[in-house]
Protein: GntR family transcriptional regulator
Amino acid sequence: MEFSDHKTIFLQIRDWLVDQILTGKLIPGDKIPSVRELAADIEVNRNTVMRTYALMEQEGIIDNRRGIGFFISDVARQRLAKDEKAQFIQDELPKLVHQAKVLKLTLADLQPLINQLKENQNEDK
Structure:
């Protein structure tokens, strides 16, 4: 995992785990690495991972089963899909529409590009 400077590390770890859940790589009931394991794997402080897990537990994305570990909650995927869509529509889509407008790109211009991106992503799977 490579980190960027534009966002705090604990949120980047959350984003990575969210992506794993939304793409189906992690499903409800799956055990996730312990704080110590993940911290060692990605070479960050254990407190950073603990902060990520605490946030995700508060959000209802993961459950802490004392003495056993952290697990993906039963409602994680549905909750994340709803929240991530809403965030994209609120934060990212207006920027995209604005940029397309500035560049005078029409829906007819964008549709083939969107289709090509979808095909490329399907090939990567």
About this structure: The two ends are 19 Å apart (CA to CA). Residues 9-75 form a domain with the Arc Repressor Mutant, subunit A fold (CATH 1.10.10.10). The chain has two domains: 9-75, 77-124.
